[in-house]
Amino acid sequence: MMKKVVVAIAFFFLAALCGPAHAEVKVDITRGVVEPIPIAIPAFFGATGSEAQYGRDIAKVVANDLVRSGLFSAVDPRSFVQEPNSLLVQPRFADWRVLNAQGLVVGKIEAQPDGRIKVEFRLWDVFSEQQMTGLSYFSISTNWRRVAHIVADAIYKRITGENGYFDTRVVYIAETGPLNKRIKRLAIMDQDGENNRILSDGRAMVLTPRFSPTMQKITYMAYYNNRPRVYLFNIDTGAQTVLGDFDHMTFAPRFAPDGNRVVFALSEGGGSNIFTMDLRTRRIQKLTRGTSISSAPCFSPDGKHITYESDRGGSQQLYVMDADGSNQRRISFGNGRYGTPVWSPRGDLISYTKMQGGRFYIGVMRPDGSGERQLVEAWHAEGPTWAPNGRVLMYFKEIPSSHGSVPHLYSIDLTGYNERQISTPTDASDPAWSPLLP
Which of 166, 146, 162 is nearest to 67 (CA)? Predict the structure, then answer.
């Protein structure tokens, strides 16, 4: 269950009224290749043993978040020249410049009489000697990891100008058992692979989980007694309800941005078509018609359009239509087959899986089909899902071996140069990224 206990209570901004004249620490993440910004993140100061331990743990998570983004490099802690307590008074900027640190994060942990902890941090521009931002939070102590993600988000946003994505979760399929008899269960974790939790018991094979825009529910498909069913699962309460019993459903629904509708594909006479369902009335509307296979629909972030895959033109390609089914048009025209399109939360790109020449690709293109770029090439890679800031993708990939291939989760940013494996307790596939936690 998500704990809504983290509260920002103060902002500390220092206007750039004095100090050396230097360009502000900033990174343009729209460029193709970005040189990581060196940033120093000493342990947050704590006066007691437990406070000091929280300070070390939080600083480590903040550093890991920022480094995994590919936009930052962490200065080696062994080279630090100031103790955490003296940093609270005034950083010795000349000493930090010797280490080539452009950014410096200073923090403090204080235990509160009610059992909570207060976490405070400041981000300094080392060369201009100016404070860039600062925040203070109260939280229950067991929620320290989430506080660290929120701190990393604040630093990321201040330096890049873009929203962060660290205070998020990922739902995915946890796979166990022999390759010829896999057990697939619904699982959830923090975006960095921590706090893993299994949500289903394994009696039914679970597929294609998707988050609702409000974060409270997951929709997924499960095969129970060889019959496909679509479920809604409430993360906070654990309540599970059946959305519908549909024979031969090809993909579980995706939510509309308003959370009141879902879009899905149903098999019909050898083909499949796209439908929407109003969750309040259970009214179903058919959007495509014909004997071709149209599936894998996904709403645009404004809810006005839907992208999907179809073989109506003779091969599997990507299409876009208005949300009422009108104005259907093809947008992919490259070699190979295209599938699993997912609209970016920013609305500027559509990610997809491409199959060509015995290889799989994860790529992106604009909604009109222009600007196509391949970010990932692999023996098998599928299931792209967007971080809520639209700058990072997660997906699953299999690498063949003498023992057979098993899936693992990976992430990559839009430059295509920062691919990283996400550690999970079991084999993992079909991830879905949540919005930022409320």
Answer: 166
